[in-house]
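pasting for ref
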Amino acid sequence: MSTVSLSLSLSHTHTHTHTHARALSLSLSSVSRSSLTAEMQPDESADGNAKSDKVAAKDATLLRTKRSKPTLTEFTRGARNIDASRGESSDERKTHGLLLDGQKLRSEVRWNRDDGKVSNSRQDEPKLISTTFALAGDSAHNHAVVYWTGHNSSVILILTKLYDFHLGSVTESSLWRSRDYGTTYERLNDKVGVKTVLSYLYVCPTNKRKIMVLTDPEFESSVLISSDEGASYQKYRLGFYVLSLLFHPEKEDWILAYSHDQKLYSSFDFGRKWQLVHERVTPNRFYWCVSGLDKEADLVHIEAHTPDGHCQYMTCRAQACLESARTFPFPGYIEPNSLVVQDNYIVVQVTMAGRAAYYVSYQREPFVLIKIPKYSLPKDMHILSTDQGQVFAAVQEWNQNDTYNLYISDQRGVFFTLALENVKTSRGLGGNSMIDLYEVAGIKGMLIANRKVENQVKTYITYNKGRDWRMLQAPSKDLEGNDIHCVLPFCSLHLQLQMSENPYLSGSITTKSSVPGVIVATGNIGSELSYNNVGMFVSSDAGNTWRHIFEEEHNVWFLDEGGALLAVAQPAAPVRHLWISFDEGRQWTRHSFSAMPLYVDGVLVEPGSESQVLTFFGHFSDRSEWQLIKIDYKSLFTKQCTEGDYQTWHLHNQGEPCVMGQKQIYMKRRPGNYCMLGRESSRILSAEPCICRAHDFECDYGYERRGAGTCLAAFWFNPATVSASCSHGQNYLNSTGYRKVVANNCTKGVKEMYLARKQVCPERPPRGLQLGTREGKLTANLGSNVTFVVQLEEGDSLRTNIQLDFGDGTAVSYSNLSWTEDGIKHVYRSAGIFRVSALAENSLGYDSTSLYLHVTCPVEHVQLLAPFVVIKNKEVNLTAVVWPSHCRTLTYFWWLGNSTEPVITLEGSIPHVFSAEGMNTVTVQVSSANSILQDTKTIAVQEFFKSLLLSFSPNLDEANPDIPEWRQDVGRVIKKALLQIADVPTEQLLVAVFPGIPTAAELFLLPSKNQSEGRKRSEEDLEQISEVLIIALNQNLVEFELKPGSRVIVYITQLTLAPLVDSIPRHSSSAMLMLLSVVFLGLAVFLIYKFKRKIPWINIYAEVNHEKEQEMLGTVGQSDATPKITLSEFSTPKEMMEKELDARLKREQSSFTPPTLFDH
């Protein structure tokens, strides 16, 4: 594991090693393409000289569990008041800065932390050599990125920027370079382009002489490349905006670039030419190959989105990611932002039946389901580490909100057991969760965590990867030498475990692999963790004992490969002094490093093993330039260390010498020796295996540790269960309830007692048969491929027959379960709900299971069929017609009138009684799979009304596009023409134009709203209005102008419905007349059908009417391709009668439901 804190930002298995160019929130969408190549042409070059090296400290990798300085990060001058309008002239900005006088700074005092006394330093105390350089002209710049280009290199690169928070972009930048460890700096703006605004700088991790600088895309999209450690540059144009880069772990010229539009590009000549790899790639979810596991060196692992919004894990070669060359190692969709490719493991997340499930591939083997204790029911899971032959994961369970549980896996990453409950989390500056877990550098299996216990947060430590935890013993004395009365478990030492948001500050806890056992941390003494009254504490024996070294918070770094400690007070106020200790914090010497107090923004230490130089970055005031103070501390050493300057140190846990199954003896420099290490000197002198004891074993999956320390089966786990992969005649390992801690080196002892025992696979009937779909859904689209997954908890999978009935008349059978490992695919050709059943059977018994699969087809149109006018308190049918009509898995939602709750049905028709007069709105929604369509109609409710059928001159059909809007407009024009003939209140007329051709309509005569004169008078009024209109229509007096020169005449169709439709039962004659009309219509239809081939016009109309009905049932919005008929001459009365009969028939067949109502 890593040597640094696990206080990671949690964002779904955040273990990526990208170098981020921008912290932006992205939306994902793309389509794969691989033929596009973006080639950049060199624009300009610059000259210079120097060397190159690495961008970050040795223990650093970004976003993985290694928590030293990230490869690319920047610090912000938070103490400054940023004035975007303030700045120097261009002439002033061309200066190379000001070199202040070199100073020899003497140590002022020495502080002995053992006796709490401060003594004056000796006159011959070694002195620090300091030089200060100001980046003149950059006082307005509020961001800086600093790089020491590698071990033993004298080159430092600094990129300063003015970030305008109002504009959200960089408006100015300066690039500085030092060739003498930071004594002097040269401004390179002239060499990269005076007007060029730079945004980010990268150093190739495998060849530190190669530098890449990106321009800010708000001005231009280019990359500047240097092969001489930043001395000269060539500029190349980019065809995309770079958000992040990922360098190949071995090939120095191979780079992946992620763009602002979610596209992934690759370059194989260090950024000179780029080609598209894939589109719709998830941010930070792309990975280079892992050496030794992936066959091709240019293989990339990608989490990409499909055009329909799903997410897939795919691999391809970065140089030729053609569609035919892509592979999908995980057979199915995964959750977005879940792919982790790290060391031997690949982890993805899926959602099954509403629950999160996780799959792992070990060493590129097929994915298997990760087994977490059954009722953990994780809400969230993050991979913390994978680099010690197992997986550490933080899991937030169903009943947790501000804590996570720490789980640890077996070697294959499949079976997880609980290591620590309720680990504290906090929110970082970016809003991401930070888990309080720290991995001590240099000592395998040692972790420190902050755990929430009864609403109190306490610090715990483990020496065996979480098998056992204990609290920290507080120091016995304070800084003044007074005794501290702190008794476990009521009082202990608690440590802050947060990593620094600023990569150039140390954070609240620090360790280094070259000095194992030394831990420096911020903390407090008491009953719980507190952020008040904190101090600094150090342990020299791996957390067994602690000493108090400072009253206030300090940043602490290791110098000389850990041979010395450097401490600087937290940068809340300007400082002039630093503290150095050569005896692991027992004695400290104070030195001045600046003539003026400096606001310290960061410290860069140890560019290489051959130089003892550190650099302070900061500013004297809010308006001053960046100050860079170089300090050479080589003079503090008296000589180079020899063998006599070292001593042995025995690692132990409260006196127990066996840690992780072995006795380890280290070589460390004797405290107080002022000799220079110059290289990583700490090493294990000997590591002797120990005899295995109980604490070398943890509980196996399915077992829990009880009060006596024994591991017993959890209530949900059956120890007698044998995997279905265990076939008769084979052997399997039967767990004893224990498993050896991974990487524990103990031998013999109780090893044979605790390790799993080899046993012969028994013959057994199938049990626990499970059937599901690959995506975990019980719905599928018509015509799509459905993959069924069959799993068996118990039984002999190689000797068990599997039968699967798809429920649509087809079934398959397999001789054993191994044939179904890739799933069973099936395509349904009809929509509906299908019962899919599976049967597992062998000679000893059988087991069966089933599921119900909803196969849906998308609904393209829905049309509500309802009468325009209905009688009050009379039941009417409302019908929703959908297309395609074969959809059988539909749900209908009906909103009737002013109801706020819908009536839900599975049928497309519903009866309803309207009890109130007036205009009522009816809306129907049809739900199918993920789509919902709706249609709305307005219905007039009256106690009685009269209606007339209307027809039109043939020229109206020529202009009829047969769409609802046209019918509504024509109905309004017809009503206006009728009102000009008869003096009738406008609210008493309602005109509804029917769909289809020939064009027909119905005129409704409604009673007056003012019925004070009585019902009889209202009926008489309707009869009079009807007579007037009939006379006018018969005399061709009703007409309207469709367009200039084209007038349409409105006619009355002779046959009508009952003279008056009434809701009162006493009007039995009207009902009888209606019945007779229906009988007469039936006879007429029979005669027309019988002799239609002998009547040319009827034959034509019947064909058109067939098309008309298809259209009416299919859609509300009609296409322009609807067939039309144009009559060559005006219809004779006989023809009009025949047309009327046919129209009457259609309305009877559709429950008298013309589909469109016109507002008046």
